[in-house]
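I hope you will forgive my troubling you with a question about protein structure. Could you please explain, in whatever detail you think fit, how the structure tokens follow from the sequence? Thank you for your consideration; the sequence and its tokens are set out here.
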Amino acid sequence: MVNRRRARRRTRTPIMLRRLYDRTLSYAEHPQALWVLAFVSFIESSFFPIPPDVLMIPMVLARPRRAWLIALVATLASVAGGVAGYAIGALAYEQLGQPILAALGKGDAMEVFATRFNEYGIWAVLIAGVTPFPFKVITIMSGWSAFPLIPFVLSALVARALRFFIVAGLLRVFGPPIRDFIERRLGLVFTLFCVALVGGFMVLRVL
């Protein structure tokens, strides 16, 4: 009986996420789409499961001349949301942060993750801000582990700007043909780039 309930929950979760994804996507044509993008970018940095790219991509394709404005709104709102995530980790970890991380499947590995995070703090923020890794995990962890706020904000700003402006730039230059690459492959490209960059710095350290 317990196994059946768990199976039902697993089935329901992807359906709920898909509905949430479709609902979020539907706001791309809303007259106040920029404000919706700002809101989604803000809450995605602390708890919302759908990334801002879902809104950004159709918005830039519909109005390429506003690509840089769209990327700027997503960047600033995402960093502001990151500060909110930081506050959750610092001030309300047990009440809010822990349930959010548990929902993301990261709750059981917090102690090990904290050790690694303290060692690679800025790198962790930069990598999570660019790659598909849930940025909210890093924002909450930053507050929980008392990572200095100013380095956190600056590294988050660099990472989110890099990600959103690259996406906006690709869409502005290449248009709809690049959309499939962005949705399916760009996250992997960012991840490989970060791995190579961190690996290069580690090699330089050893040498």
